[in-house]
Amino acid sequence: MPSLVRPLSPRDPQEGHRTATPLELFADLCYVVAVAQAALTLHHEIVEGHAADGLVYFSLAFFGIWWAWLNFAWFNSAYDPDDTIHRLLTLLQVLGSLVLAAGVPRFFEQDFRLGVTGYVIMRIGLVLMWLRVVAGDPARRATARRYVIGLVVVQATWVVVVLTTEISIWLFVVLAAADFAVPFLAEKAEPTPWHPHHIAERFGLFFIIVLGETVLSVTLTLQVALDKAHPPAALAAVIAGGVLITFCAWWLYFSRDSAGILTGNDVGFPWAFGHYVIFGSVAAFGAGLAARVEYYEHHAKVSDLVSSAFVAVPVAVFLVIWWSVCVRPHDASIRTVGPVAVAIVAVVALAWVPYTELWVGLVMAAVLVGELLLTRDTPAPVGGAL
Q1: Is 139 exposed, middle or buried (0-12, 13-18, 19+ CB in 10 A)?
Q2: pLDDT tens digits, 127-168
Q3: Which string of DSSP letters, residue by residue, matches 226-256?
């Protein structure tokens, strides 16, 4: 049993064998409930013929989910006393994530009130955590105070705006930028001692969970289609293409060691922020693949091109950011950027080709083969991803 209260001190960023805790894994699973809600609602928006609006509000909702999770993950990498108080504050944030998940469908109706309520609950837990740092880590007291002030001011602004006016997309972007500014300003005082291997593992685990949610949503959609008397033969393309894309995305993400490149905030922040696009593109791909199933069943109020684009474009975006944050720090030469650039162009062009998902899967397999050839003499990342 954990102690009720332990002295809160910074973790050693060079600590050996640092791994994710059961509490962190539980929190991740709860945050992914919100991811599933966002992907499911995007899927419905696509098949109902509201693809453009759906994509915009999916991006907004996913930002809220990812940003809340990132703040929690980054704090826990630097400070994790694992006492009762810390566990309760973590569970308070988990409660907030569930309220946020319940409010995700309302994002698509331009109603942010329930989502912001969930955010307030999460921020209360996070602010109390940072107040413990103020008391327990004198060397980073100024950093912790900046976090507290920044979080309180930005969150209070969100609440006031939601209660007094209708949030436009541009106002959302401005407030999101203010949220982004908090860690940059806070860490200028004294960087927090986050653990590179722990952060890389946390992001990798969250990637796996989001990828798993994508597989689940597509599987459930396929199950409904295949249970019918005469399912369309084209579903074979969805199954084959979906399996290829999903497996290749997993293998590509873990093909290189991310922990070794995370040498400080100047690298860590861009790497972490790039994962908003990586996680979001994977979730959007799942929604697009589910929409393709409904298109083949003639249930979707959307064209072949639009439904295909929601498979091809997320995969292309994934490849762009995967190369930028996972490959480029290791090898930015033409031998990596050239094949990936060709693959990105090919994937986008395949949106105009019948059975897009199958051809995109084959392109992803070709990218994976090229990556394996490039890294064949490189030691496998910790955990044996290769």
Answers
A1: exposed
A2: 999 999 998 899 999 999 999 999 999 999 999 988 888 778
A3: HTSSS--TTHHHHHHHHHHHHHHHHHHHTSS
